[in-house]
Amino acid sequence: MTRCLLALCLALTSMAFSADLKPGVAVFGGQHYTEFVPGELPLVISAPHGGLLKPESVANRTYGVRDSDANTQDLARRISAEIKKQTGGQMDLIISHLHRSKLDPNREIKEAAQGDKTAETVWHEYHGFIEQALKAAVARHGRAFFIDLHGQSHKDVRVELGCMHLAPSYAEKAEVLNATSYISTGTLKLITQLHPESPYTELLSGPQSLGALLEERGFLATPSPRMPVPTEPYFRGGYTVARHVSAESKIAGLQIEANRIRLRDTPENRQRFAESLVSALQVYLPKWMNLDLK
Ligand SMILES: [Zn+2]
Questions:
Q1: What is the pLDDT of residue 18?
Q2: What digits encode the pLDDT tens for the residues 181-201?
Q3: What is the spatial distance between Cα 45 and Cα 160, in angstroms, rounded to a whole number?
Q4: Residue 31 CA, ligand 1 centroid: distance in Å
Q5: What is the mean pLDDT of the chain?
Q6: Phi and psi (nearest 5°) for 6?
């Protein structure tokens, strides 16, 4: 019975949302625990761990990571605003408003919601919004780029770019890294299909890799030409990028783990990083995805 009700709710929800979405006009899941700002560009960003709400009606999670990624909700909104400013276009933005102690959308549902029925519904809504956004972006532009935005406080202060490869694997020989078997385990496979002339290592840590473009703009990053093999600890990407990215669906993407110092700690630093990331994406997306943010 509960399952039927949930399915019915989800069906009604998606009908309501697909009916008349307007770029830049936010829609919300139940009780405003998830927010979806629809866009018109081939870029979709989600922020799963910046939620602030701790309603008593949702049970506390009792295992797994329960700390939030401080200020990532604000950072995601600044990135969206900066894209609008630099390109005139609206990107898709999906935000989880529940604190991570209540829901971790970047886990499969069992660990994410830990049996709480409301949290489970919110989890479905959140991932439904991402799916909807990516599907629409691919329909509009032929392909789409997806970023799952996080924050970390690792000792080595740098932005970590995760496309599902484990840190030590980057130390393999170029012929291993450039083989289809390795590429297929990552989330940038679509780009290698668009650019068969470029070895995968160029995309991961070459002079026009996202890591290189961020370092040029004053933010240390890995993988990058300076650090092609990330030192550990390193976040390689998680449930969300693994679930929503696929070359077959014409979607590439990665997880961005923004460090706290000089980047997430003050409004000025968040603004500076938002501007630099957008500037980097304005080079990266035309070069690698053959897409303009316009
Ligand atoms: Zn996170």
A1: 61
A2: 999 999 999 999 999 999 999
A3: 16
A4: 23
A5: 94
A6: -60, -45
- CA–centroid distance, residue 238 to ligand 1 (Å): 9
Tell me the per-residue pLDDT of 84-142, one tens digit each, with 9 for 90 and over: 999 999 999 999 999 999 999 999 999 999 999 999 999 999 999 999 999 999 999 99
- Strand ranges for 48-198 from DSSP E: 92-96, 144-152, 159-162
Closest CA to 219 of 174, 163, 275, 168: 275
- Alpha carbons 244 and 176: distance in angstroms, whole number: 25
> Ligand 1 mean position to 96 CA, how many Å?
11
The Cα–Cα gap between 96 and 109 comes to: 14
Q: How far apart are CA 55 and CA 139, in angstroms?
A: 37
Cα separation of 243 and 268, whole Å?
33
Ligand 1 center–CA 149 separation, angstroms: 7
| Beta sheet of 34-37, edge-to-edge order | 27-28, 34-37, 92-96, 43-47, 144-152, 251-259, 159-162, 221-222
For residue 151, the CA-to-ligand 1 centroid distance in Å is 5
**Are β-strands 34-37 and 221-222 bridged in parallel, bridged antiparallel, or unpaired?**
unpaired
- pTM for the full model? 0.94
Q: What residues sit around ligand 1, an ion, with C-beta below 5 angstroms?
A: 49, 69, 150
